[in-house]
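Protocol step 4 of 6: structure prediction from sequence.
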Amino acid sequence: MKKLLAMLLALCMLFALSACGADKDVKGSVSPAEDKQTEESAEAPVEEAAEEPAEEPAEEPAEEEEVALGTVNGGRYENEFLGIGCELDSSWTFADEEQLASLIGATADAVGGDYAEAMLSADLFYDLYAESAENAATINIVIQKLDLMSSLASVDTIVEASLKGVPEQLEAAGFTDISIQQNTVSFAGEERVGAQISAVVQGTQLYEQQVYLKNGGYMASITIATYGSDRTADYVNAFFSLG
């Protein structure tokens, strides 16, 4: 049950990302004054333009880093693409590749034995799922490919737009007493955009801290959830920078 709830809370956020690249009016408008100025310019005699020095060739844009999966060795997770890792004690168990694929509905046959290829070609995939039987806590990392508008927006803008639809989604899933607040959290050595969520589900108090990382055209949501008491800050501190 905890796994299902943690998955729902993570995906509620990320499914909203595709909608946050709101339609923007890209058509220009010209005022009457500008119209007049344009007409006067058209009537004025055209002077021969002085030769301009040849433009230097533009610099090639920096090559975008390719998305990559993280690795788990013992209780240590690392992802070079996201630039983060975490160290968890022996009370934690980690989902294997087949289990991670099943979280987005992919079967072992669909994965075809090559989890990395199958997940990296998807628009959304789980990079980590871990749970602690001792502390009733879960940690998961979901990575989603952003649409063009979202990839150009700041993390703060994306999260602010996405959070607006989350309460309604949680209510529809049976959550009550929902509280969601965008915040800033010290995570892996940097100040990151996050969201604190608390709710009651099946009579149990749930606390969650989400942290958002953006790299190029991808957004990662790190979701840390605990039940009964709020220990999310303890597990936020388990993460470190690989930089």
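Step 5 (inspection) to follow. Confidence is low (pLDDT under 50) at residues 18-42, 58-62.
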